[in-house]
Amino acid sequence: MHEEPLVRWDWIGRNWPSIQVLLADHVVMALVPIVIGLLVALPLGLAGVRWRWLYQPTVGVMNVIYSLPSLAVFIVLIPVTGLATRTTVMVPLTFYAMAVLIPAVVDGLSSVPDHVRQSAVAMGFTPLRRLLQVELPIAVPVVLAGLRVAAVSSISLVSVGALVGRGGLGYLFIDGWQRQFYTPIIVGIVLVVVLAAIADLLLVLAQRLLTPWSRARGAA
Amino acid sequence: MNWLIDFFGNPDNWSGPDGIPVRLLEHLEFSGISLLLAMLIALPLGLWIGHTGKGALFAILSANAARALPTLGLLVLIVLLMGVGTIVPVLIPLVALAVPPILVNTYEGLRGVDPDLRDAAYGMGLRGSEVLGRVLVPVALPLILLGLRIAAIQVVSTATVAAYVGLGGLGRFIVDGLATKDFPRTIGGAVLVALLALIVQLGFALVQRVMVSPGVSQRQTIR
């Protein structure tokens, strides 16, 4: 076997268009589950706070779902959603996101101090306005912390989908393995980590924008 | 359902080097070794960082960055670089996967202990190591165990992927089944891995009930 350089830059240049296609596919498959997961977790989390008895069973079910290995779930889903489709990868990732986000929403809403809630009531806030203008903003840091975990793991897990034929950048791992060729694997790892870092950074920025008071307090 | 009967009902799948018992043992072997190594690295480090507060920012930042590493890619790369002669190349990514949750949760657990409690322990004349062993660790135990549980489940799940690079374990059924279009085999393997993960989850719930002091478990645990 001849000596192989770790990264062959000319390969990256020649294959950049197809890498971009994989990258876009990866972003879609990672992003959609997080968004849907959040949209489902918000009402379920609210329900969990309002009706406490609902919360423990929900968390139990979510813990069970979270412990199911992604590859196993992809495979069980193939007869339903098809081999190598985006849906096969996105459905389990949506449930993983929910498993992280529902407790985050519940913890976030529970972190609203009681005197704050009572002040809002005393000021004549309707329950809906209280939720939107007082409780949810206070819950933002905890929810966003959950969202960061969900985003990073979603981005990293999409690549496992490559084993069932649809894994975005994960395809580069399979390609590199089959050809005993380092470059695609390294490109894939670097791009996944960069994607995760960008997502994390955006969420940190979102937190700063959504909770201006925490900065004001820090400066004072 | 018929697929499951095809797979689990076939006596050939229950014996020999490619039988369910052998594959299960292999799976448990490298999951167990990886988890043990990760514990040996992450627990002392997490305790030290959490207790002294030294190097916390660096450790937590690198642990979070490590979480973003795609295991499949890491696995493929390391095995390609080191060859598949032993299980060592497969242990590296699994350990890398298990260290961050254990480290971060141990650290967060110790940090989250009420400072008054810590002061009271010192005030009672306990030395640093006694405060750590008798007060901080018991109080932080739910979070530490949560970290171990997350790590264990991730290792058990990901050890499945290891079959792709030629390793044994339950993932073999999935990968071989996919390669030969033997769908009952694939589904059977997936179900076995899922069951194993659930058993691990359940096992940790029991350990938590036994190990965590009743006074502490009143407290709500944070994810």
Automatic annotation (TrEMBL), chain A:
Residue intervals passing through the bilayer: 27-49, 61-83, 89-109, 138-165, 185-206
The record's keywords, sorted A to Z, are: Membrane, Transmembrane, Transmembrane helix, Transport
Q: What Pfam families would the database entry show?
A: BPD_transp_1
Q: What is this protein called?
A: ABC transporter permease
- Membrane protein topology class: Multi-pass membrane protein
List each copy of the ABC transmembrane type-1 domain by range: 23-203
UniProt xrefs under InterPro entries? ABC_transp_perm/SBD, MetI-like, MetI-like_sf
Q: Name one GO cellular component term.
A: plasma membrane
Zinc-finger keyword on record: no
Source organism of the structure: Streptosporangium minutum
- Which family is it part of? Belongs to the binding-protein-dependent transport system permease family.
Query: Taxonomically, what lineage is the organism?
Result: Bacteria, Bacillati, Actinomycetota, Actinomycetes, Streptosporangiales
Q: Where in the cell is it found?
A: Cell membrane; Membrane
Q: Which GO terms describe its biological process?
A: glycine betaine transport; transmembrane transport
TrEMBL record, chain B:
Q: Which Pfam families match?
A: BPD_transp_1 (PF00528)
Query: At the top level of its lineage, which domain of life is listed?
Result: Bacteria
Q: Membrane-spanning regions, if any?
A: 30-50, 71-99, 131-148, 155-175, 187-207
- The principal location of this protein is membrane
The membrane topology of this protein is: Multi-pass membrane protein
Localized where?
Answer: Cell membrane; Membrane
The UniProt keywords, alphabetically, are: Membrane, Transmembrane, Transmembrane helix, Transport
Q: One Gene Ontology cellular component annotation?
A: plasma membrane
What range(s) does the ABC transmembrane type-1 domain occupy?
Answer: 24-208
Tell me which Gene Ontology terms the entry assigns under biological process. glycine betaine transport; transmembrane transport
Record InterPro entries: ABC_transp_perm/SBD (IPR051204), MetI-like (IPR000515), MetI-like_sf (IPR035906)
Similarity comment: Belongs to the binding-protein-dependent transport system permease family.
In its UniProt entry, what is this protein called?
A: ABC transporter permease
The organism named in the record is Streptosporangium minutum
